[in-house]
Structure formats: structure tokens, C-alpha cells
Design goal:
The chain has 145 residues and is of the alpha+beta class. It has 4 helices and 7 strands; from the N terminus they run E-H-H-E-E-E-H-E-H-E-E. A 7-stranded mixed sheet has the order 1-2-3-4-5-7-6. Strand 4, helix 3 and strand 5 form a beta-alpha-beta unit.
Amino acid sequence: MELIPIKQHLHENKEFAGNPDCQDTLQMTIDFFNRIGYNLPWIGYYVKLNGALVGAAAFKGEPVNGKIELAYGTFPQYRHKGIGNQIVNALVQLSLKTDPSIIITARTLTEENYSARILRKNNFRLLGTIMDEEDGEVWEWVYSP
């Protein structure tokens, strides 16, 4: 599995621009990082597995107070195949390699779903319900090795 960085400008991302699975997220990701800053490695990525783009992964900005939030997803045709687990693991490993003291968090809908199962399989524990300014009420998770 390979995390391929989404570059800061649309014209630098030709390999993704023509991919139908990337069309909805490419410009949105670039816009997001133009708003909050583009700071490697705390950026967005597309995920390649066996030569195919299978999903997306991101950090929601650089660490704040030693804490980072990750986001991830698999493209529809690759769901329910364990790829989400691999994506989360890759983000965790990149985080810890960059800063072993980092606190890694994630947020999900307030329901038992695939994201909750993926996080539990990757040693995240549920902290509780919080209010997210963009998404409303969500569950917050923290990585606990």
C-alpha cells in the first residue's frame, strides 16, 4: 500500500484529475489545504494498492497541541475488503514515524458502523460524543497502542 501525496495545486495532480473516483475529492482536498495550510506530511493522500487507486487518506491539518486528526475512506468498489484497516494503519504509522509523541484522533458518526469497527481494529478507543463545528455531533476516538 502506498500513500501518494495530493499536491497543493490542481495542475500538479494530473494523475488523479482524470480518475472518476478522485473527481469529487481532489478539488475539495486542495481547497481545504489552501485554507488551513499545506504542511507535509499532514496533508491528503490517495491510496494505491496493487497498482490501483483504492481510497483516500488525510490529516485534517497539522498537529495542534500535539494532537492530529485523521480521515480516510475507500472507493465504493474496494469497500468491505479490509483496505480501510490498512489505510488507517498507514496513517497511524506515518504519524508515529513523524512524531512518536503525537496523539492520534479520528471522528465518526455517532453510530456503530464500518468506520467504528475499523478504528477499533486499529487500537482506537471511543472517548465520547463531541460537537464538531462542521459535522455536528460526532464520536471522537483516540489511538491507544
